[in-house]
Every structure is written in C-alpha cells, then in structure tokens.
Amino acid sequence: MRVGLNPVKDQQEAAASYYHQVVVPVYIPDEEGYFEHSVTILKYCLESLFRTAHAHTFITVVNNGSHDGVSEYLETLRRQEQIHELIHTHNIGKINAVFKGLTGHRFPLVTITDADVLFLNGWQEATYAVFEEFPKTGCVTTTPNPKLLKYHTAGIMGQYLFSSKLRFVPPRDPEALTHFAESIGTPDFFKPCHKSFVLRLEGKETHAVLGAGHFVATYRGHLLTEQSGAYSEFKLGGLSVRQYLDQPVADQGYWRLATETNYTYHMGNVAESWMQERLRQLTDDSKKEVAEPELRTSQRGRGMRLGRWLVEKLLQRKPLWTWFLQHKGLSKSDAKCYAN
Asked: What is the rounded CA–CA span in Å between residue 335 and residue 193?
C-alpha cells in the first residue's frame, strides 16, 4: 500500500555548484608486501587532494575491494564530508571502478587519478588554462612525460608540422622527471635527451607540452560519460585504460596535452619523508572560488581523423620521425636519442 505522493516526484535536479569531478579508485586488499605502505600513501593522496581542490570540486572515491580498515577510514572521511561520494564494491578492476564513479553524473570536467598521487597547489588552474588556450584539448595531465611524445599526439603534430609554435625547449621542471622515474622504480627511465628537451606547444598566454600519461589526467566529461556499455575484463592493465580513457579523446579529434610545469607527483608504494614535507608546504584551497573554464568546441570530422591516421603512419617510419625531431629543433644526436 502507498499513501500520498513522493515529495520529490517530477522534480528536476537543482543546479549543482560543482563542475569538476575527481574520481579515485582505491584497491588495498591488505597491508603486506606490495601494499605495506599503501594506506599511508592513500592518506597522503587524499589529504593533498582535499587541500588543493577548489570549492567546486566533487570528490568521488570508489573503494574497489579494499580491506575493512580502509573501508572504515573512507567512511570516516565521508561522514566528515571531505568525500562527497563513496562507493563500496568488490574488486571489479580499475576501469570498471572508474565508470561506477562516473555513473549518474555529468560534470564538464572529470579527473581520473590513481590513489598514489600527491597534488600540488594550482593543479586545477593550470589544467583549465590549457583547456582554454587550446580549444581542441580533450585531456590534460599535470605530470609531463616526454617518453610519451607520440602517444595520441599525431593530430597536433600534423597541424603544427611547419609552425614554429611547436618546438623543442628545455623542460620547465627536469627534477620532476627524475622523481617520476624513481617513483616507478626505474631511475634510468628517461634518457638525457628527455631531461634536456620537451616538445612544447606555444600559446598566447599558456604553453603546453606533448607527452601525457594517464595515472592522473583531466578529461572533458562527455568523452567518458557518453561511452555506452563500457566494461573491461582486466583487473589492471591490458588495453583497458587505453581503450576507455585515452582512445576516445583521439577518436573524437581532441588533443592530449600536459601542463608545462609539474603539478602532481607519483608517489609509488613506499612512503618517504619528502611526501610529508610536500604536504606541509601545501596551502588550503578547499574554500577557494575558481571560475568554471570555458570549454570551447572545435570542428572535428572524418577528414581530421584521416589526417591524424596518415601522420601516425608516416611518423612510424624512423627516417621521417628523425627528420621531424630535427625539424623541431633537436640536434642530430638528441634526435637519435629520442628516436631510439
């Protein structure tokens, strides 16, 4: 039996004050071996996010099969309203957890981040500046990675092939490259040429860098939420991240860029003293008012996709790739270093 009318029936959702969602999938099954320091790392990650995210940021955490202690910690944060949405599930894999966090929302901007990222003040403003400067941008990461120079960037290279606005320059923050290499346990991950030169796209007020990974990245929200039937059979790895997070950006003709300066650190799975020091240096921006960026649209079509495909095929040829690198400002030896 039902008596009366549900008071929210036929009511439209009120305009939310949030325009930027951050989704954090968390998987910590225990605190042994690989996961020994993971709870500490998670706390550093979330604390840095809470301090640096502005007042219009909606934080979603997906507890992807973590142990009870993690679940209780996250519930405490939810009760304290530091987390806006907390979803508990068994371990369904990273990508599936991400899409659970996206379900039921439609934010203009969505950041997908691993749970071992330390955020610095200003990361959102720097991200917005890239979106506004380059209207074709679909994804921005705040940790430049020159080894990913060719990863979904053919459209940019083709458009600026003969333009001086796209050229190699010294990196703004070479120490951050060393830090990233150490955080993944591969100190020699970057070659000397990567630490000496990055490919920069020059704008009128903001510059960006080609070479963007996906351990933390901000997307135009519709590129993620408009995917129907998104599902990955992989718990982690495989081609799931490429297929559901990265490929849609390129397929719809958008650009993949990185901020020129490093605004996020990959911490890895071992807690170190520098992390606490960085946290102490952060200022609290949680009440900060930041205007929603203007996400302009640009013409994209079959011709642009064909052009991108053609550039990709041409640059797969080593002589042409080496020519491109030198054409954009590298010496013969540095071009050889980049090409190998």
From this structure: 8
Q: List, for residues 250-272, the tens digit of each pLDDT value.
A: 888 899 999 999 999 999 999 99
**Which residues in 140-152 are b (16+ Cβ under 10 Å) and which e?**
bbbbbbbbbbbbb
- Per the document, the length of the chain is 340
| Residue 210 contacts residue 257 (beta carbons within 8 Å) | yes
Give the chain's largest Cα–Cα span: 81
Q: How many whole angstroms separate alpha carbon 118 and alpha carbon 275?
A: 8
Q: Residue 157: name the closest of 171, 136, 142 by CA.
A: 136
Token digits for 133? Answer: 């400067």
Q: What is the DSSP letter of 258?
A: E
Task: Name residue 168's amino acid.
Answer: F
Which element (helix H / strand E) includes 97? helix 94-102
Nearest to 183 by CA among 318, 37, 19, 1: 37
DSSP character string of 207-254: -EES-B-SSEEEEETHHHHT-SS---S-SS-TTHHIIIIIHHHHHTT-
Q: What is the mean pLDDT of residues 29-57?
A: 97
Task: Please tell me the pTM assigned to this model.
Answer: 0.91
pLDDT greater than 90 at residue 287: yes
Six token digits for residue 117: 């990222």
Domains belonging to the chain, first-starting first, are 20-225+238-268+276-339 (3.90.550.10)
